[in-house]
Amino acid sequence: MFTLEAPALSSNVSVSYRQIGRELSPLLVIDDCLADPDSLVEFAKFSEPGTGKGAENLHPVFQQDKASFYPGLRCPLPDEFGRGLLQQLTPLLHEYFSQKGDVAFKPLITCLSLACVKKEQLRPIQSLPHFDDVRNDQLAMVLYLFKGDLGGTGFYRHVSTGFERITRTRLPEYAPVLKAEAVGAGKGLFGRYMGRDNVFFDATDYVEPMFNRAIIYPSNCLHSGVLNNAVNYSSRVNKGRLTANMLIICNEV
Predict the structure, then answer these.
(1) How confident is the model over 37-55, as pLDDT tens digits?
(2) DSSP 218-251
(3) 38: which residues sit within 8 A by CB, 6+ positions away?
(4) Rounded to whole angstroms, how far apart are CA atoms 152 and 224?
(5) Is 2 in contact with 59 (CB distance < 8 Å)?
(6) Are the C-beta atoms of 19 and 205 separated by less than 8 Å?
């Protein structure tokens, strides 16, 4: 079994911040994020489907996440790693997402992800931008753990409603409009990964992928991995679009 050490931020960490779209949603980009990102890649290799390493050593393995529409495989990371990573990130979260310092951050989900569903097998909802939750007090983090241009992360505005973030009050308006648009579009819109934009969504921003780059943003932003539809994405760690993902709850204190 491969054991992860407590995470630490790199001494060369570089942080940039911008507000995206008309709604000025916060987006934090952290380059050279972790001191030892390769340890996460090694952990992922022990978790590869079909290798047998995980089963033999009681190691978590990649599998389909039936609780979400993620187009690929996921593997849970140890709770203590998630807590440790969030502890390292907390000063940055206070600086850019809670200047008053009156918020406590808690990891909700921490996992590794491999986007590898063939484009022809995508469900319609997987071909469109999505949001993780309607809550305003939740952040999402993506850490890119692959090299090469396998696709970054896009952010979007829904053309018909103008929404860039889907809140509890916006969802009753947004959901039926999008459903009607999808039904009217037919199969021509689907069977492919989301690009920079399409007839129903305008791009508000795009983050290029870079090994050991992390991005953090409100989880109710409309977003999507922007994958190359000409590429057959692999479920093998050394060839695939490997990311670490975290959902973060922001609790007032």
Answers:
(1) 999 999 999 998 766 554 4
(2) ETTB-EEE---TTS---SSTTTSEEEEEEEEEEE
(3) none
(4) 9
(5) yes
(6) no
